[in-house]
Amino acid sequence: MAIALLVVTTFAFAAFALGMERHAKDVLGVVPAPRRRLGLRIAGWVLLAVAMAIGMLGWGATVGVVEWTGAMTVATVPLVMLVLPYYSRRHRRSAAPAMPASGPEFGELVAARRSLTARLWRGVRVLVLVALPAGIAWAFVNVPPSPVQRDDALAGRVGPWTFVIADVTRKPPEPSALGTAMKAFQVRFCTGCDTQIRSAYLKIRQPRSLRGAGMVFQGPSWNRRADIQIAPTARIEDGLWLTVEGMDGSVHAVEIDLARVSPATARYLSALTGRQ
């Protein structure tokens, strides 16, 4: 999906460039008719719309727009920095008059040096143009999925809202600078739910009030994260509790199966209980 998004945006900006008189003359050698240039610009806008649709289908409306914007930025780099300058220089060289030489040997030497330099620059450009998309594609493929998109993420409902919650690292809680063990979780509510939710909290042990609901989830709607404290007296029987406050002032809480959402944390709490 990411590669398709990058390819479509690249073709879109290539169409925009060929729809401009200057770049069309450099690349094609001729200036297309005004109607054809207009058609190329329209094709560029259509391809950008297709790319946005690809982003939204792949990552949702919010994240898809961000991916679409990033793909446009990446697609313009080789086009603006390498491809168009190359054709512009080639067009200027072909239009410039040949420099007279003082003798046959001098002319052959200059021609050989120019040919060698041209081949070296051509090789560098080809290497960059091949390596840059390949590197970007490798990075896209190897980026780990968001925790809430993993198979071990746990889906549930709190009040009228559905959610997916996951352990961020799959590791046991780690001590912080203050010596208290900390554990990170990520939650994502359904798209329509976010506009109805004021804040969400997470903690070990059932909260008695909103003031003691635990650590608040922070970050954008697709990456709400909370780092909760694991007290030395915590037990697995206390449970992991998600508390959500709605825009209308309502408060809902639900217990989450800690052994399912974070087996490493469950084992950690079991070990704590054994030491107690």
UniProtKB/TrEMBL annotation:
InterPro entries: DUF3325 (IPR021762). Signal peptide: none annotated. The keyword Cell inner membrane does not apply. Pfam families: DUF3325. The chain crosses the membrane at residues 6-21, 42-62, 68-87, 123-141. Keywords: Membrane, Transmembrane, Transmembrane helix. It comes from the Bacteria. The keyword Transmembrane applies. This is DUF3325 domain-containing protein. It comes from Thauera mechernichensis.
